[in-house]
Amino acid sequence: MDAELSEDKAGSRRAPLVAADASDRLSSRDQLIRRLATVSQAGHMSASLAILGEYVGASHYLLARYDLVQEHGLDFVVSSNWPFDLVRRLESEIAATYSRSTELEKCLSVLQPKFDLLPDDATVPAGIGRQYCSLTVSVGRTRLSLMLLFDENFVLSPERLREVALLTGYCVSLSTGTSHKSDREFDLTERELECLFWIAEGKTSDEIATILGISRNTINNYITSVMRKTATKTRSEAIAYAVRNNLV
Q: Which residue range or ranges hold the HTH luxR-type domain (predicted)?
């Protein structure tokens, strides 16, 4: 009898703990969503991705838009803290994989974590594993890919990865209005914004030309146009302007 009472008491003690754990998780998720809403509505996509990376345990994030018209793979890097050379090396791999996928496979991949290994010749930051996770997200007619790197031997949570995919779409949706407003307000084309992003990453005209597959002179024309529209005189001033106005 005493043993049964002891078990009942233990059971009664455990139940509130389980409820508390569930409550803590819900509270934590609510706090996460509130933080994301605040930074996304302010147009800080990089801050949103940093929060999501922290939530899922990722050390590096890269959000890019797919080219759905010509199906050339990744079309535009939205935000990234990946090493530049790694992005450039992986781009061709992603383009090849995307072009081989059927439309049904592309649709089924939405919100589903997919794991791949970085190419053997790719240079990976110290302590980072060679496996990366990609999550496809659709926001309206736009399809995006979120790619995450993790520390070596990090244990991933499939549930959290799916949550991050959903929340990425949520952040992009919130920031879309701000982005469109910025585009109209500062009258910058997508190509000009791309060039602005890459000069903010410290890339030269030759490097940007290689990335975008257009000539160096065309890149310089885009950059000149950016500086004219933003009333800046140097690349450094253009970068500072872009940072102040959440354009990169």
A: 181-246
